[in-house]
Amino acid sequence: MSSILNKDKDKKKNTIILGIETSCDDTCAAVVENGQKILSNVIASQHEIHEKYGGVVPEIASRRHIEIIDIIISEAIIQAKISLESIDAVSVSNRPGLVGSLLAGVGAAKAISYALKIPLIAVNHLKAHLFSNFLINPDMGGGFIGLIVSGGHTSLYSVDSKWNIREIGHTLDDAAGEAFDKIARFLGLGYPGGPVIDSLAKTGDSKKIELPFPMIDSNDFNFSFSGLKTALIYKTKKEPGLLDRENIADLVASFQASIVKVLFEKTFKACAQAGYKKILVSGGVAANSSLREAFTAKAESEDVKLFIPPVKLCMDNAAMVACLGHYDYIQKRYSEISVDVYSRSDI
Amino acid sequence: MHILGIDSSTTEMSIAVSRAGQNNAGFADKTVHIEYKAQERFMTQIIPLIDSVLKKTGIEIKSLDYYCVNRGPGDFTATRIGLSVIKTLAMIFKKPVYAIECGEVLTQQAAFLNAEKISLKIKKGFRVFVVPVIDVKRKEVFFSLYDVSINEKAHCTGKIIKAGNCFFTAKISGDILCSSADFISKLQEFFNAAYKKGFLNEKHALFFCGSAFEAYKHLIKDIKWAKNSLLFPGQVFYPQAEYLNQCALYRIAKKQKGDENIKPYYVRDFAPFKKT
Questions:
Q1: B264 within a domain of the structure (yes/no)
Q2: How many domains would you assign to chain B?
Q3: SS3 A77
Q4: How many cross-chain Cβ pairs, A to B, lie less than 8 Å apart?
């Protein structure tokens, strides 16, 4: 695969890939040229719909996807200013994710593939997150540790120079983003929890309130955030004063700092152990400003090159799906039209 | 003029391509129809089945003029599979799409498959109604009342009903959701109201169909207004795409526009849990 990821000197024509992503609660479609140039990247967020439940409700997400999927795809094609005939392939996330949500995107992608007589490329959503960085740094190459951290996933991957991807760790319970959402809900701060806690934590002192750093010294690269959440809840039960307005910022700052520290300690440890000098972070939680700062600082001190895509590309989006689709397309790794959707999947 | 219809609202999926007959008179003169029974594999088989129907019909997908889909009520996930494909095809080819309710498809189907018996009743001056009763899970059923004896001469070559063509149906009342246990009493209540409004009288005939009907067959016989007026000629439990197409062709003949922003017909709002 490495030869493909390097610049292809024999490239005859530009590839135009339409990407579709509906694995969770965002309905996304994008058009990407040559796996790099984003011609359009449309994201219809459902945050407001799920806000009152404090988390993504699968049936509601499925209902929303099916209402707007055709409109979002049409919008992506219009914004890209391309004709239907110029699309070379349609790429779609078919795993892992919420089955009802995935079906909306995969059904639409199959219809497009069949209607336009172009290849269908079903991709792994998590692998697409790893590829989101290629939209910004197409020459990054392999040989790095990748951390994907979002509301649904927290996993570490070792990616060798030939782009063989191996999962080396994952969360044993809640994903980091899920922990943010649950704590935000517990504290009545709103949804999604990540951005709310991120901005509130800026006014707090992360050292004032002591919280554990779960599994930080474990000998593997797995994570666990459920216990941290419980620790915070017990702490506030013992000391109800922590829930007072003047203490909330300190509380969430500590909570966030604990998650961020565990994430970067494990990621850099994995990087050192593998002998790599590159780290990639993606996923919705990679939008967290404290995480970005901490990773940047640590990368500088350890002389590791850090790649974190811009916030819009860290979150769920279809540009990353189209980007990964591009690399599969030029290798002719097409999917059967009978491809299914899967709630769980290895990368 | 050709229409592609997908019905994936129940445990059986069917796909049909129909050619409109007699200058778009509202019914098909040729239909190719395929059924598929494994619901858990709808997503994997939907495109191969469309392809197979089109190949049998001998036309290209881009030559289709209209699309239609059964929007339920039915199985949520299965219904959405049909919708995602149909909506996207219509979007790509910029063609109108008609979203038809499950009850209407069942009514069309029941009337079509029992055309002679129903025709006879209508000729004798009876008003014929179809009552689709749909199993919507969670021990609930959904029913409506459709009139199939409407005079639509303009579209039907001089005859009210021409066997082999189509029935013009109109939902006159209903869309009632009730628990399975309450079904018979709700139906009685519903018929009492229909009688007061003048829909039911001494000269009416009732035809039941739908996925939930079989279980109640023996009880329905004893309901007032249903007694002596039931027609039990053929069994129609699951909607089929060829009758779905028929419903859409009727709309097209009446110059009705396609539907926009279509979504499944959900019989209940989704309220997952209370905010903690």
A1: no
A2: 2
A3: helix
A4: 104
B67 and B79 belong to one structural domain = yes
Q: Examine residue B214 and state whether it is found in any structural domain, yes or no.
A: yes
Preceding amide of B73 cis, omega within 30: yes
What digits encode the pLDDT tens for the residues A37-60?
999 999 999 988 888 888 899 999
Same domain, B227 and B166: yes
Please report whether residue B22 resides in a domain. yes
Q: What domains can you pick out in chain A, each with its CATH number?
A: 2-132+314-330 (3.30.420.40), 142-308 (3.30.420.40)
CATH of the domain at B67: 3.30.420.40
To the nearest whole Å, the CA of B80 is away from the closest chain A CA by: 7
Q: How far is B181 from chain A (nearest CA, A)?
A: 26
Q: What is the extent of the structural domain holding B71? A: 2-102+238-253
Interface probe, candidates B39, B62, B71, B91, chain A, greatest A C-beta count within 10 A? B91
> Average pLDDT by consecutive 10-residue portion of chain A (347 residues)?
47 86 97 97 92 88 96 98 97 97 98 98 97 92 95 95 94 96 93 93 94 94 95 94 91 97 97 96 96 97 96 96 97 97 91
Q: Report yes or no: B262 and B70 within 8 Å, Cβ to Cβ.
A: no
| Structural domain contains residue B273 | no
> How many whole angstroms separate alpha carbon B230 and alpha carbon A337?
46
The tens digit of pLDDT for each residue in A246-303 reads 899 999 999 999 999 999 999 999 999 999 999 999 999 999 999 999 999 999 999 9
Please tell me whether residues B127 and B199 are part of one structural domain: yes
Question: CA B87 → CA B52, B67, B92, distances in Å?
Answer: 20, 8, 9
**Token pair listed for A346:** 């290895």
The mean of the pLDDT values for chain A is 94
Residues B8 and B97 in one domain: yes
Neighbours of B265 (CB within 10 A): 19
DSSP string, A221-251: S-B--HHHHHHHHHHHHH-GGGGSHHHHHHH
Express each pLDDT in B121-169 by its tens digit.
887 888 888 889 998 888 899 998 888 876 443 333 323 333 334 556 6
Q: Is residue B75 domain-shared with residue B148, that is, in the same domain?
A: no
Taking contacts as CB-CB distances below 8 angstroms, the residues of chain B near A104 are: 80, 84
Taking CA–CA distances from A66, the nearest residue in chain B reads: B84
